[in-house]
Protein: Anti-FlhC(2)FlhD(4) factor YdiV
Organism: Salmonella enterica
Amino acid sequence: MHFSAFRLQQAIRNREFTPFYQPIVCATGGEVVGCEMLARWLHPQKGLLSAGNFIPAIEATGLGGAL
């Protein structure tokens, strides 16, 4: 998928990106020892997009800090 810098800026401004938290579990004890944040884009037309669909465009446009 291709997204323009304008569309990405618009999505950031509209708060369309959402963090999803995934627990990190200790393999030996089974307790949660942390979490990993996974960015998702709740795109109004395309639905829920995983990071692989938009992170390359975010990086190419220099918008990583804004995200």
The first strand starts at residue 17 and ends at 25. The two ends are 18 Å apart (CA to CA). Residues 5-60 form one domain.
